[in-house]
Amino acid sequence: MLKLPADLHLALKILAAKRxxxxxxxxxxxxxxxxxxxxxxxxx
Length: 44
What we know:
mainly alpha, 2 helices, 68% helix
């Protein structure tokens, strides 16, 4: 289980509601983007 600070948890919860998705999906999306940047040599 991932423990998030209360303010980050609330921000993710609000963003998930606005995008009609889940917090888990948002976290996975962010991790995938991070991994993609890492494989690309750190370029953004």
